[in-house]
């Protein structure tokens, strides 16, 4: 029972983890992209459509990541090159992505992912280590999407904290003019990380439509993009912490199905992740220490010659 | 071209909108030379140096480095040519350690090795006699440490041309002395140093040559040995200037403000004001001296009603004003102006224009629901002509004015409210001579109107000349109140370092 809940929490947490990581590196570059929900939906429909047509899992993955980064490119062009307001740009991206996915998905509603794709994303047991009690079953008997997402989180953590490029990126988010004075190409860094961030959000959305559900339904992300933005705060901009944040919230979102017999209102249980999100935001705002605070220049445009 | 000429800037011009920041400027700096760039606020010193360091692009003119013509598209290009600039507001990432800041943007292995970089940095730093704690985060550093980090950063980048934008503005006299030793050392090693300043005694002390700028134009380049402070001042201001500070004799009236046993705590429950007691009389300037962070800011804010008081009384004309709202306190005629280190943080809204900033305080007095800008605009125009504020107009955002002009706007507004008590902290912070004197004159004028003035200052020489009495703060305690005419700099220095002298408390 416990193993099953934990295992399902990882599955439910995977779209959150991918989107959280995407938003995290975007924010590390000093850009607050509130378009996560939109990018996830665009990725979800593109992944579903391509997977459906070509009956090919790779096409689904490529479609999801490319469409996610294309959506992020719109946001990047607006906020980096044109220096427009990041909050407004991000919000409009969400609205745009939601509408676009509904429009493109009209003919797919209720359609199921082909067997070829579904089989590709079946859990794969990793020899030996999957035999470790509890942990083995939970961590090492999953589909490749899940493996990819938590390995990626570890890689991003190492990238951010242990490499030169990661240090430069952090400097841009903290103090772009200091980074500029040190000769770092700010716009290039921002574009690259925002685009990668978009690709991850797209992949996160596609996990829902291609693997988890795997049937197309309108507004399939159901607010997970917003939870991901809160999770970035919860994890204090640390990819390692985002792993357990995402899985905790994944667990909260499935707990309703698992304890139906307790006779608690289903609606109440569905609210759980969102209530916890609010609680998390309240507690993290109370944190006044310098460690684990947001990048200082988050959401501020940078213009070198401004006085 | 001569290889020993490290920097040559020829007929450089730069406009910001309609403001001519630089107009046909020339500058030549040789190897091993310390070259001072002298000028009032808004003379175009920083703009010129920002072009040399690749932050701005010149509209016209040419730059030669080590004899080669160069065109900088970004700071990176200028770093490659060996130019390192230390900005007035340090370009450091607060949340990172010294090592991280120094290695920022450097080429090298993909993975960071703090140990390796630390050893390399240490070697460079120690060859110039610089020492810091490399693992300290920038936000925990003192200003001196931050500056040392900046210097090491540019040296580590391999700079042999160093630009320093007002490096001593925020340093204590001891730190300044240390910095000058380092700079001289670097010049001997063959670096060229350009130092932007408006402090004359520093120019005389450290530079080999000095170039005077005024209103965006080069006035003259002189050899420091063959000139003197008087000549430089006159060149800088453009007319003969009187450098003395007045202390008009005014009959000191009755007590207007009395502080009794004031104690306050900060968020971490540390006492920042401990049993502070003093009084302020009509028509007197009471100076407040002390090392930065001794409780000056908290004292100002406590009187203005912005800081929570733990115990004690603040009596204004024998009425306790503790617990009143800031607006009530302003209405009673107590006005406070505080100039923080970044000079814009408190008091003015940077992106609003002069009129709107003025309205922030004025609007309560207007009747009706709509704001009337016209009368305020007139007041602002008066202020501009009276204080010689340089601005394209009253509808220009204040952040685009130079530091000195911003300060004039702030203090001018406070004085215009006709206060009975005027509290001013660091009123001349970072100001040039002429602007400073305008502000001293303004304060003296208020003094003659029987206003009680609390003047919190940094420069002891100014405090001694301007004030009637001087109160010394040290770690939140009053260590002495002395008569300015009868004391010396040394005595105040002793009080600042925390030695309570019960004798002088009686004054």
Report on the structure:
The complex is a heterodimer of chains A (307) and B (507). Chain A has 307 residues and is mainly α. Chain A has a single domain (2-286), classed as ABC transporter involved in vitamin B12 uptake, BtuC. Helices cover 71% and strands 1% of the residues of chain A. Chain A contains 13 helices and two strands, in the order αααααβαβααααααα. In chain A, helix 1 packs across helix 12 (239-258), helix 2 (36-54) crosses helix 11 and helix 11 packs parallel to helix 13. The model of chain A has no long low-confidence stretch (mean pLDDT 92). Chain B has 507 residues and is of the alpha/beta class. Chain B folds into three domains: 5-237, P-loop containing nucleotide triphosphate hydrolases (Rossmann fold), CATH 3.40.50.300; 242-333 and 419-507, Rossmann fold (3-Layer(aba) Sandwich), CATH 3.40.50.300; 351-417, no CATH class. Chain B is 33% helix and 25% strand. Chain B is built from 17 helices and 20 strands. Chain B is globular, with a radius of gyration of 24 Å.
């Amino acid at each position: 029972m416990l193993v099953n809940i934990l295992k399902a929490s990882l599955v439910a947490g995977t779209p959150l983890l991918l989107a959280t990581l995407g938003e995290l590196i975007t924010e590390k570059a000093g850009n607050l992209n509130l378009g996560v929900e939109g990018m996830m939906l665009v990725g979800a429909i593109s992944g579903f459509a391509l997977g459906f047509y070509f009956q090919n899992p790779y096409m689904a993955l490529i479609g999801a990541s490319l469409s996610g980064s294309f959506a992020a490119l719109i946001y990047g062009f607006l906020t980096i090159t044109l220096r427009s307001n990041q909050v407004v740009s991000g919000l409009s991206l969400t609205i745009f992505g939601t509408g676009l996915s509904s429009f493109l998905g009209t003919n797919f509603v209720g359609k199921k992912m082909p067997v070829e794709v579904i089989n590709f994303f079946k859990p794969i047991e990793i020899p030996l280590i999957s035999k470790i009690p509890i942990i083995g079953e939970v961590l090492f008997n999953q589909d490749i999407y899940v493996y990819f997402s938590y390995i990626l989180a570890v890689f991003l953590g190492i990238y951010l904290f242990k490499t030169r490029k990661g240090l430069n990126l952090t400097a841009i988010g903290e103090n772009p003019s200091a980074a500029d004075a040190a000769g770092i190409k700010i716009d290039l860094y921002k574009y690259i990380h925002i685009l990668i961030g978009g690709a991850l959000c797209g992949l996160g959305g596609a996990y829902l439509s291609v693997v988890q559900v795997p049937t197309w339904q309108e507004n399939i992300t159901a607010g997970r993009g917003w939870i991901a933005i809160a999770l970035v705060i919860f994890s204090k901009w640390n990819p390692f912490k985002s792993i357990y944040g995402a899985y905790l919230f994944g667990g909260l979102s499935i707990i309703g199905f698992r304890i139906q017999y307790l006779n608690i209102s289903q609606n109440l249980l569905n609210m759980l992740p969102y209530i916890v999100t609010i609680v998390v935001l309240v507690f993290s705002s109370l944190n006044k220490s310098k460690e684990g605070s947001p990048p200082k220049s988050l959401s501020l445009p940078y213009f070198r010659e401004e006085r | 071209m001569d290889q020993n000429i490290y920097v040559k800037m020829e007929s450089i011009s730069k406009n910001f909108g309609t403001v001519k920041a630089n107009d046909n400027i020339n500058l030549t700096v040789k190897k091993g030379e310390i070259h001072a760039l002298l000028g009032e606020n808004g003379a175009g010193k920083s703009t010129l140096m920002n072009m040399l360091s690749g932050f701005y692009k010149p509209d016209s003119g040419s730059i030669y480095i080590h004899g080669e013509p160069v065109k900088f598209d970004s700071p990176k290009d200028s770093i490659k040519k060996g130019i390192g600039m230390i900005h007035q507001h340090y370009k450091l990432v607060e949340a990172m350690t010294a090592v991280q800041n120094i290695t920022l943007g450097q080429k090298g292995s993909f993975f960071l090795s703090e140990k390796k970089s630390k050893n390399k940095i240490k070697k460079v730093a120690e060859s110039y006699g610089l020492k810091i704690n490399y693992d300290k985060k920038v936000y925990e550093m003192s200003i001196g440490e931050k500056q040392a980090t900046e210097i090491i950063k540019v040296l580590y980048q391999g700079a042999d041309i160093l630009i320093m934008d007002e490096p001593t503005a925020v340093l204590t006299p001891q730190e300044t002395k240390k910095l000058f030793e380092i700079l001289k050392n670097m010049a001997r090693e063959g670096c060229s140093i350009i130092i932007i300043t408006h402090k004359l005694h520093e120019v005389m002390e450290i530079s080999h040559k000095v170039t005077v700028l005024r209103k965006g134009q080069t006035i003259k380049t002189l050899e420091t040995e063959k000139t003197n402070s008087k000549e430089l001042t006159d060149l800088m201001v453009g007319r003969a200037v009187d450098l003395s500070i007045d202390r008009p004799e005014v009959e000191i009236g009755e007590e207007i403000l009395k502080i009794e046993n004031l104690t306050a705590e900060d968020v971490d429950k540390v006492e920042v004001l401990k049993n502070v007691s003093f009084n302020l009389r009509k028509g007197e300037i009471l100076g407040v001296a002390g090392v930065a962070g001794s409780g000056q800011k908290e004292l100002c804010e406590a009187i203005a009603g912005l800081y929570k008081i733990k115990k004690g009384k603040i009596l204004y004309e024998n009425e306790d004003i503790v617990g009143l709202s800031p607006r009530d306190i302003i209405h009673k005629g107590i006005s406070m102006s505080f100039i923080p280190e970044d000079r814009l943080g408190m008091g003015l809204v940077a992106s609003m224009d002069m009129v709107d900033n003025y309205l922030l305080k004025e609007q309560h007095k207007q009747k009706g629901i709509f704001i009337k800008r016209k009368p305020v605009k007139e007041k602002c125009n008066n202020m501009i002509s009276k204080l010689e504020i340089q601005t394209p107009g009253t509808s220009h955002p204040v952040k685009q004015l130079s530091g000195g002009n911003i300060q004039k706007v702030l203090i001018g507004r406070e004085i215009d409210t006709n206060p009975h008590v005027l509290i001013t902290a660091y009123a001349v912070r970072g100001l040039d001579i002429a602007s400073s004197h305008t502000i001293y004159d303004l304060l003296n004028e208020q003094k003659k109107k029987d206003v009680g003035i609390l003047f919190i200052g940094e420069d002891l020489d100014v405090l001694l000349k301007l004030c009637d009495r001087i109160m010394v703060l040290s770690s939140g305690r009053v260590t002495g109140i002395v008569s300015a005419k009868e004391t010396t700099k040394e005595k105040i220095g002793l009080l600042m370092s925390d030695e309570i002298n019960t004798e002088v408390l009686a004054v």
